[in-house]
Amino acid sequence: MVFLSEFKPGKVSLPLLFNWRVLQMIMWLIGFFILWCLFFYPSLGELLFWNILIPIAPILLVLLPGVWRNVCPLATTNLLPRHFNLSKRKKLTFKQIGILNLIGVVFLYLIIPLRHAIFNNCGVATGILILLMVAIGTFAGFFYEWKSVWCSGLCPVHPVEKLYGENVLFTVINAHCDSCINCVTPCPDSTPNIKSTSTTKTKSHKLAAILITGGLPGFIWGWFHVPDSPKIEYLSKILSVFTLPFSGLAFTLIIYYILETVINKINDRTGKHNLQKKLTSIFAATAVSCYYWYRIPSLFGYGIFKNDGLLINLQTRHLGMLLTTANLLTTFFFFYWFLFRKANKKSWTKRPAVSSKQINAYYK
Predict the structure, then answer these.
(1) What is the residue range of 196's domain?
(2) Tens digit of pLDDT for each residue in 280-305?
């Protein structure tokens, strides 16, 4: 049970909230434009979505996940039923939220390899995928409280948010939830230094945490060693794009599981849990560093597969040494950020004032 002492009510000034609403609208229009391009100008839409928006996302989730949670166009759309009081405002059980978290992780691991087979070369397919996620999230929004089903449950980006967002740069206001109804425990937006392993009380929570923390570094490595396939004629070719990512996932997952088992025995003996936190941080730093190690060169034509993930072709500029330096700097930065930067005990967003409904429930 969450006690009222854990709530830190915060009042938001109307001008500040208005600024966030404007920013949400701008981001929603940008998202709509990208979606429109995916259907009518697929090449441009793919470039904007996969080679500009997505490469920016990991560093944003490391530094300021609260900003993304506030302005994500998908979240803005999915939360409209709640903002306009059209939601039945049901609450999920702790077990149900764990199941949704696990489905979100599985969804992530199934969708990303299909980029090579389908989405990277078919803007319409990417657009349909986005619309499907909008439909699921918005439909859920008519029945369930705030961010419980999609933003803190089914969304495939959310597991990565929790893995990367453990030590944010600073806290921003919560520009969606006007009151705290305690719809998710612990609330990812309001819990200081939340990690992917912060909630492991059910089997679903535990499995989701292990899969995303231990598996993501190897999964990313494997994904970058698979080329895009412009034409997929057989089911076997579609399935082949999963081989290396899942092999990498299994490899680092086994390493993580072994290390976690050893650490748990040490924790039981000493009563300290710092090693477990460090292990999670090491795997988070490895995952995001691995992503940019391969992604930065590929944006400029220096990737393993020259035209995959290309933003601007700069091969004739002989920038290999410069890009290697950029890779080393980003790797150094992420390991510093996760392992050596002092934890500041900040949450992604400021918890809004507790709702009267929650107060009444507490005193019953």
Answers:
(1) 11-363
(2) 999 999 999 999 999 999 999 999 99
